[in-house]
Design a protein that fits this description.
Number of helices of chain A: 0
Oligomer: heterodimer
Radius of gyration of chain A: 14 Å
Distance between the termini of chain B: 32 Å
Structural class of chain B: mainly beta
Order of helices and strands of chain A: EEEEEEEEEEEE
Radius of gyration of chain B: 13 Å
Largest sheet of chain A: 6 strands, mixed
Helix content of chain A: under 10%
Distance between the termini of chain A: 41 Å
Shape of chain B: globular
Largest interface: A-B, 22 and 25 residues
């Protein structure tokens, strides 16, 4: 079974600075999808960024980018120019190409200081 | 509405009672998922629907849990004889099909007294 590990329960960043959230995963599959979701206090899970494992190029969405290291099974999220609205719980998630369910990490609480 | 809608937003009930949680997916989304988010277990998959059938119900924790989906749209998650360990946020998501991004609702916070 696949597992996802987020080793940072909590992170803090100063407004306008850059922060990196870590995620590692374990799988025997060669093709899969990886995601970062943001969950603000409203509880809604918001898709931040998605990476297909067969793509070597790291995904980027505006201020959000990933560092995908397939051999190391690492998938970190970099948030540039942090804003107060970025404060939330961030979840890393894995999905097999053969299934539909998301497997989530434990989450990282991100606090943004003004 | 434009997003996934879940009701009720919050539910408080006594141990032993049955509860029904509702999910209204984004219009046109054929795939629907239920997840549970609890303090002890994190985010766990419960069940996946494609249309009205559930090809993967491997995450349902016990036979007290059941779900159905009718008309390829609204889904209901039912928990019978609730226990305190059922207290959690129940999240619903939908997508346009397999291997497509999942869009989540705001969840139902269930508290068992």
């Amino acid at each position: 079974a696949q597992t996802v590990t987020q080793s940072q329960p909590e992170m803090s960043v100063q407004e306008a600075e850059t922060v990196t959230l870590s995620c590692t995963y374990d799988t025997s599959e060669s093709d899969y999808y990886l995601f970062w979701y943001k969950q603000p206090p409203s509880r809604q899970m918001i898709l931040v960024i998605r990476q297909e494992a067969y793509k070597q190029q790291n995904a980027t969405e505006n201020r959000f980018s990933v560092n995908f290291q397939k051999a190391a099974k690492s998938f970190s999220l970099k948030i540039s120019d942090s804003q107060l609205g970025d404060a939330a719980m961030y979840f890393c998630a894995y999905r097999s190409v053969y299934g539909n369910k998301l497997v989530f990490g434990a989450g990282t609480i991100l606090r943004v200081k003004s | 509405g434009a997003g996934v809608s879940q009701s009720p937003s919050n539910k408080v009930t006594e141990k032993g009672k049955d509860v029904e949680l509702r999910c209204d997916p984004i219009s046109g989304h054929t795939a629907l998922y239920w997840y549970r988010q609890s303090l002890g277990q994190g985010l766990e998959f419960l069940i996946y629907f494609q249309g009205n059938s559930a090809p993967d119900k491997s995450g349902l924790p016990s036979d007290r849990f059941s779900a159905e989906r009718t008309g390829g749209s609204v889904s209901t998650l039912t928990i019978q004889r609730t226990q305190q360990e059922d207290s959690a946020v129940y999240l619903c998501a939908s997508s346009t099909g397999e291997n497509q991004p999942q869009h989540f609702g705001d969840g139902t916070r269930l508290s068992i007294l």
